Amino acid sequence: MKSDNQLPERRILPSEGDSIDLEGVGTSYKMGGLDMVDTISLYTLKMLRDSRYYVQHPYFRIFVAYFVVFCNFLIYAEDPVAHSVSECSLPVLGNAFSFVIIRWPDVAGYAILKVFMSTLFLGCGMIFGKYIIHKRFLSGYLRLSAFRQNHGSFMVMFFTTIFSAYLGSLVYNLFLKSAPMYSERVEGWMSSKYMGMSNAVFMKLAASGTWAGDLFTAWMVTDVMLQEKFYPSWAQSLRLWWSTKYRRIIAFWTVIVISSLFVVTIIATDVVRWDEFNMNILPTNELSRAFLASFILCCDLVIVVQDWDFPRFNSNLDVKLPGLTISEFKITLPANLSRIEISGKWFNYGIIFIVMLLDLNMWKNQIFYKPLDFGQYVGEDSRIYTVTKVEYLTNNLTYEYRKSHINPLTNATFVEDDWAMNAKFVGYSLGVKCIALIPNVIVFLAFGYSVYYFGRLSAEQPVRCVKVKKKKPRRIERFLSHFSKTGTDDIDTSKI
After folding, report:
1. Per the database entry, which stretches of residues form a coiled coil (predicted)?
2. Is the predicted pLDDT of residue 176 greater than 50, yes or no?
């Protein structure tokens, strides 16, 4: 007799057409030989009250998700780079962006060359990411459950495509350098880390993207928590209301649209200035901002770790996608050429990894920040001043000069035309600021260790579940055909 706390037996590769009900769990496989449910990694939550139970509790998950939103607002408001009018530069990402999007030649031959090379390197990046990194390495060699079959291939292809575009920009620049007849114009065609926009404009775009990603993640966590069944004692009435009819869908998209329009408008128009609102109550320096950026990166990974199916990610938990009535996307191209499928896990958490790229750039800005590199200087009380006119960025970026010299156009000192921020620059050494790297190293190593040692399939478990169609014998085919037409009364089974 099976006890109540005994876990059900798990089948890794169900046969085609089977329908399995897991006794004591109430969850069934989606058959066809393709979908698996890892019940052990999920339902131990209902049976064990260990540290994992509390770390992954809905209240704590919701708190972390919304606290990240607040921290991203804070670091954007305090970041002096967000107010710089100097040109934005991003290593690798900037090269890829200028190679594909901007700096197009006005000579037809070189424009065609850029189209050909960008298409070639982008295609090579996708193929390399799909078949080498994902299929051979992550799924085949490491046997990571999160990357089984085609899961996570889009994210891998995204990162490898960025790197291949960077390599393509270097090769493209070599071709341009061999064009002597256009030597005076080649400099404007070459790909570089400069993105053709100011830091202020880029940070507005990055802040809007980070806000959208963080808000979507927070709402996704909220939506999943209100659909879950592992913690039956929390928010019972709210969960009942949330899951009734289309209330969760209406509430989700209403909050997303209204809040996004409100926040993006504030970010884009500078209607509310943080320095005027803050009143110097909470000033930061480059070291505290570096620790804040490091903390945000850690929280991004914590959101992923808090998932109930981490690190295997091989069940959809019968939970719908945020704001939708489905649990995954499936798109079949014409003539059955291919099928595009995005599972709920990668749809939800893939957004976080993209947001982490923006957070990494924010972290890089704080660690290596020097005021002169961004058209800024340090004044009294270590406050940072931003030069607001591009034509004044080339020289004389000192507080003493700009305070003692008059601008003939305004008949006021140069410092009066500049923007004084509450953010400060004390002058900490790079070694001291790199202390903020320690929490990231610890969390990333722990994350990688968990994925590698607890998220791998064993040697006996197949990495891929292949749907095999067996051809039926001819006699069985005739029997089935006759059965479907006449029924069973007039069939002589002895002839089969």
Report:
1. none
2. yes
